[in-house]
Write a structure and sequence with these properties.
15 strands, about 20% helix, 8-stranded mixed sheet, binds zinc ion, alpha/beta
Length: about 300
């Protein structure tokens, strides 16, 4: 596999039976917690979460981790007036750090809808303005010249045309959601940060069945798989899941394809490939019938 670069993603799989996929996903950032660049992470990528999701003529961007910087550059090279909807899962640094570096923000011809879960009584526009305050960032929020519309989606469903996006609160510090995107009978579920087992500091209990329904029969599930079972022992309550836990959720929900996501910044490529191979064997031995991959920066998923 080629090292991750700023170049446009390359296609690595084909949707069967149709020329135009209902949903096309490009991974611009797959790493969790903090960027982890360097030769040891070049295969799966060092940028923090950002997915480009093409739904016919509509563009949805999931999270604004450091991967969104190169996506913005790509969009401006492709069109003078980018139009997109950015859906944030939550506002931990690794999911917003790229936001001020998303160059379409500074283009008056851009049209951007920005959606995410309200955090207590603080609206998300205020959160972004705070992120760009002078102590943290040199360019003021007022420098944004794109046409922007902000909205909240804590739970429930947002629909436009033939696109349906549902949000569900998951087990992770702050108000964090996962998204399910549906179009033309196909579905993508994106849950980058979620602790599937153990005590939940947010007090969310008994949501397992709701979560199983939420991921139910998804064509693709992209889920938090930050730890091995051994690592989890020391990190229970930190808001993240293990590879095994993600596999078991995918099996329970009857998903067709699982991608491990939110890779630990300490996880080098060779180790992740080895874990992927081990988990595939484990899934086989337990009779799990879905495809298993580790999300890598620069790849494209056709659904
Ligand atoms: Zn995260
Ligand atoms: Zn988080």
């Amino acid at each position: 596999m080629e090292p991750a670069t700023d170049a446009a993603p390359t296609v690595t799989s084909e949707a069967s039976g149709s020329a135009q996929p209902a949903i096309r996903v490009c991974c611009w950032g797959t790493r969790g917690s903090i960027p982890a660049p360097g030769p040891a992470t070049a295969q799966y990528g060092g940028n923090t979460p950002c997915l480009e999701v093409r739904l016919g003529d509509e563009l949805v961007i999931l999270d604004a981790g450091t991967g969104i910087r190169a996506l913005g550059t790509s969009l401006l090279a492709e069109q003078d007036a980018p139009r997109a909807s950015i859906f944030l899962t939550h506002f931990h640094w690794d999911h917003i750090q790229g936001f001020p570096f998303f160059m379409p923000l500074y283009n008056p011809a851009s049209s951007l809808r920005i959606m995410g879960p309200k955090q207590l009584d603080v609206d998300i526009q205020t959160l972004f303005a705070g992120q760009m305050g002078p102590i943290y960032f040199p360019i003021p929020y007022e420098a944004i010249s794109a046409q922007t519309v902000f909205g909240h989606l804590n739970e429930g469903t947002w629909e436009e045309g033939d696109i349906c996006i549902s949000a569900m609160r998951v087990r992770h510090p702050s108000f964090t959601v996962g998204y399910r995107i549906e179009r033309a009978g196909k579905s993508l579920v994106y849950i980058p940060d979620n602790e599937l087992e153990g005590d939940d500091p947010q007090g969310l209990v008994d949501c397992r069945q709701e979560l199983v329904n939420f991921v139910g029969d998804a064509d693709v599930l992209i889920h938090d798989s930050m730890y091995t079972d051994e690592e989890y022992q020391a990190k229970a309550g930190w808001g993240h899941s293990t590879f095994r836990q993600a596999l078991e959720l995918a099996d329970e929900g009857g998903v067709k394809r699982l991608l491990f996501f939110h890779h630990s910044p300490d996880r080098e490529d060779a180790e992740l490939s080895e874990i992927l191979s081990d988990r595939r064997e484990m899934a086989l031995s337990r009779g799990f019938g879905f495809d298993i991959e580790a999300a890598s920066e620069g790849n494209e998923i056709l659904i």
